[in-house]
Amino acid sequence: QMNFTGDQVLRILAKNEKQLSLLRDLEGLKPQKVDFWRGPARPSLPVDMRVPFSELKDIKAYLESHGLVLLDEEREAMAKSRR
Amino acid sequence: LERSTSSFSYSSYHTLEEIYTWIDNFVTEHSDIVSKLQIGHSFENRSILVLKFSTGGSRRPAIWIDSGIHSREWITHATGIWIARKVSMDRRGWDGVEVTCPALFQNRLWRKNKSSRPGTFCIGVDLNRNWKSGFGGNGSNNNPCSETYHGPSPQSEPEVAAVVDFIMSHGNVKALISIHSYSQMLMYPYGHSLEPVSNQEELYHLAKDAVQALYEVHGIEYIYGSISTTLYVASGITVDWAYDSGIKYSFSFELRDTGRYGFLLPATQIIPTAQETWMAIRTIMEHTLHHPY
């Protein structure tokens, strides 16, 4: 059976259609790098996206490069965990 | 293997094999009201089974419930099983049918079926985008790698074709309820269009009543409305096909939760979810019963 250890499900709140479109681009990648639990629909609805552990770094970099950043609380929690 | 349903845990998730064993035991124990029908095979050649609840007669007005078209929505399989037991215990004089959906063994977070075609790298078609109404429109995808890939043509998938054939040949289904997760929503057609259906006001008020009945069980809040205005535009979906085929009361549930656990809803929430969902379904069923057409 597949093992999902280390995978993360990210909840993304897109500001506008342009950001939603960036997420839709991820869906078209072959092979697929992410698995949408709640797909990109409209800006008022959150997008839930499972990211395999092996793709986390690339996907987060992609999101950050397009202005989709982790919430401060999570950054703090990650920093604390590293310390 | 269990020899009866008395030792079956309704508050746990189960494998397909366990569910199929439960079905056989359940039918044996309630043979006066429940029968098992095989209506076709999945792409991987597994039996597609329907439980029929009936006090007799043939092609009486019926209500169809499917609970688990998408394999990773585990809470829907568990809820479906609990509801089947509840219906047998209530012993009302209605005809109802329920389908189980093959769950997948290796990837328990898989959404689609497992169909493959020569020359296509990715596998699987979204069985909730393969229906005829609005097929191929917005809210579905022609990319085989997409989770919402609609397939090469309407009803191309054996799972969908089997259900369509069954419902059309029955000819007297008056309500269709399709259960998914997650998001805590109760919705009616259309998904493929923003255009309201002809009895939109009736469906709106029925959804409102059903959601209220659900809320009164454990205080869980659902939003409700048409699929396209509540969630998103989605084409080729089950309830749109059902409505366009003349089934006036067609509803789609999205069960718990709103994303804290998503598909990985803890098993401790199975029974509460099933209890509240049942009250909403009963509301829809009773409205159907009292508004024959």
Describe the secondary-structure layout.
The complex is a heterodimer of chains A (83) and B (293).
Chain A: E1 8-12, H1 17-27, E2 35-38, E3 47-51, H2 56-65, H3 72-82
Antiparallel strand pairs in A: 1-3, 2-3
Chain B: H1 16-29, E1 34-41, E2 47-53, E3 62-67, H2 74-90, E4 95-99, H3 158-170, E5 173-181, E6 185-188, H4 200-218, E7 223-226, H5 227-230, H6 238-244, E8 249-255, H7 270-290
Parallel strand pairs in B: 3-4, 3-5, 5-8, 6-7
Antiparallel strand pairs in B: 1-2, 2-4, 6-8
Please give a structural write-up:
The complex is a heterodimer of chains A (83) and B (293). By secondary structure, chain A is of the alpha+beta class. Chain A contains three helices and three strands. Chain A has a three-stranded antiparallel sheet with strand order 1-3-2, with no helix packed on it. The longest helix of chain A is centred in the first third of the chain and has 11 residues, at 17-27. Chain B has 293 residues and is an alpha/beta fold. Chain B has seven helices and eight strands; from the N terminus they run αβββαβαββαβααβα. Chain B has an eight-stranded mixed sheet, with helices on both faces. Chain B starts with 15 loop residues before the first helix and ends with a helix. The relative contact order of chain B is 0.16. The model of chain B has no long low-confidence stretch (mean pLDDT 91). The chains are: A alpha+beta (83), B alpha/beta (293). Chains A and B meet through strand 2 of A and loops of B.
Strand order of the largest sheet of chain B: 1-2-4-3-5-8-6-7
> What would you report as the Rg of chain A, rounded to the nearest angstrom?
13 Å
Task: Estimate the strand proportion of chain A.
Answer: 15-25%
User: Which oligomeric form is depicted?
Assistant: heterodimer
Q: Which blocks of ≥5 consecutive residues of chain B have pLDDT under 50? A: none
Helix content of chain B: 25-40%
Number of helices of chain A: 3
Amount of beta strand of chain B: 15-25%
N- and C-termini, Cα separation of chain B: 44 Å
Number of strands of chain B: 8
Rg of chain B, Å, rounded? 18 Å
Order of helices and strands of chain A: EHEEHH
SS element count, helices of chain B: 7
- Widest sheet, order of strands of chain A: 1-3-2
Structural class of chain A: alpha+beta
Largest sheet of chain A: 3 strands, antiparallel
**Quick one: how many beta strands of chain A?**
3
Sheet bearing the most strands of chain B, described? 8 strands, mixed
Q: How are helices and strands ordered from N to C of chain B?
A: HEEEHEHEEHEHHEH
